[in-house]
Amino acid sequence: MTDWIERAREVAAKLAVDAVERDRRGETPYQEVRLLKDNGLVTLLGPAEHGGGGQTWETAYRVIREIAKADGSIGQLLGYHYLWAWAARLVATDAQVAAVEELYTTGNLFFGGAVNPRDADLTITEDGDSLVYHGHKSFSTGGKVSDLTVLEGVLEGTDDHIFAIVPSQQEGITFHDDWDNIGQRLTESGSVTISGVRVPWESAAGYVDRRFRPLVYNTLNVPAIQLVFANFYLGIAQGALETALAYTREHTRAWPYGGDDKQAASEEWYILEGYGDLQAKLWAAEALVDKAGTAISRVLHAPREELTPEARGEVAVLIAAAKQRAVDTGLEIGTKIFELTGARASASKYGLDRFWRNLRTHSLHDPLPYKRREVGAYALLGEYPTPTWYT
């Protein structure tokens, strides 16, 4: 793990150089994704026999966090890529898993996903031995920087949801370049129209003879990606605190009108107290997120047939707790650092606002009070979260 984290730190250092300017321009991050590819981070979870890193999710989560310290958008893109690259293992047959992992690992391919359950699902029609996807999604993270896109829709006349992996660059997929939010500006998360994208029936993930064989393991997609969220939230928070500390060391001036005048800001009791409080809370959040990462990595890499509803529930509750801690701590840091750095730190050139904007934007993905309720129902009633699109 250590070597991969160090490699991620080296990539993050390059991203940090112009992170403020890139955030301001909001351009499609082709070069940033190329940097991830060139440094082997895209194939970190890929099988070693195909040239991949052969690493575990525990390592992947830490790598996401390191990248997000420098650039929350690129941390999100990498985290989503890891989840969609693992999607075959979550739901596909053994043969499909082997084919997908060889394809993306040998090709160093980057994943995006048009899987937004709040929209009406894409419609799938049958045409002989093919499935044909049609519809529109208001969000599709990865967009134009992806090589492969995960589609999900409902087969017409049924309640059957079918996942498939398709090339992103084709006539039937139109990315609309309409992501214009206050944060996570480089995630290519705009809307997409799917028009007549054809997939062979044998590529329908997890279907054998046109029937799906469900496992509890299939439902790990939500806990896995919720912990992706928590890790890039945590990375954003770490980046915010590190950036603020560096600013205070170099620029913040002591306040000369408090009756307890100091020579340097680093001697001010309220600055020391403020940073001490934030650092302690951040360390606590890190510990909980790491605990959750160890727990889910253990079940993600275990035989799929062995996962029980109870084991899945224990992991889901822990991740719900980790996510809320990462959000609350990160938002507090993103706000409090301005009090500790001083008025001049609010200048646009320093870009301290991007940390709060990034975390605030994505943490609205699904309501945090529901995560608190999941933990409360477990603590008070011993209930596990019911697997849904968000739990």
What does this structure look like?
- GO terms for molecular function: 3-methylbutanoyl-CoA dehydrogenase activity; flavin adenine dinucleotide binding; monooxygenase activity.
- This protein is α+β, with helices and mostly antiparallel strands.
- The chain has three domains: 109 residues, Acyl-CoA dehydrogenase/oxidase, N-terminal domain (Butyryl-Coa Dehydrogenase, subunit A, domain 1, Orthogonal Bundle); 100 residues, Beta Barrel (Butyryl-CoA Dehydrogenase, subunit A, domain 2), CATH 2.40.110; 166 residues, Up-down Bundle (Butyryl-CoA Dehydrogenase, subunit A, domain 3), CATH 1.20.140.10.
- 51% of the residues lie in helices and 13% in strands.
- The chain contains eleven helices and nine strands.
- The strands form two sheets. Strands 1, 2, 3, 4, 5, 6 and 7 form a seven-stranded mixed β-sheet that branches.
- A hairpin with a 5-residue loop joins strand 4 and strand 5.
- It is globular, with a radius of gyration of 22 Å.
- The mean pLDDT is 96.
Give me some keywords for this one:
391 residues, alpha+beta, Butyryl-Coa Dehydrogenase, subunit A, domain 1, Butyryl-CoA Dehydrogenase, subunit A, domain 2, Butyryl-CoA Dehydrogenase, subunit A, domain 3, 3 domains, 7-stranded mixed β-sheet, two-stranded antiparallel sheet, 9 strands, globular, monooxygenase
Summarize the helices and strands and which ones pair or pack.
Blueprint: H1 2-17, H2 19-25, H3 30-38, H4 57-70, H5 72-91, H6 94-107, E1 111-114, E2 122-127, E3 130-137, E4 148-155, E5 161-167, E6 173-175, E7 192-200, E8 207-208, E9 211-212, H7 221-250, H8 269-300, H9 309-341, H10 353-362, H11 368-381
Parallel strand pairs: 1-4, 2-4
Antiparallel strand pairs: 2-3, 3-7, 4-5, 6-7, 8-9
Helix pairs in contact: 1-4, 4-5, 4-7, 4-8, 5-6, 5-7, 7-8, 7-9, 7-10, 8-9, 9-10, 9-11
GO biological process, one term: L-leucine catabolic process
Protein name: Monooxygenase
InterPro entries: Acyl-CoA_DH_C, Acyl-CoA_Oxase/DH_mid-dom_sf, AcylCo_DH-like_C, AcylCoA_DH/ox_N, AcylCoA_DH/ox_N_sf, AcylCoA_DH/oxidase_NM_dom_sf
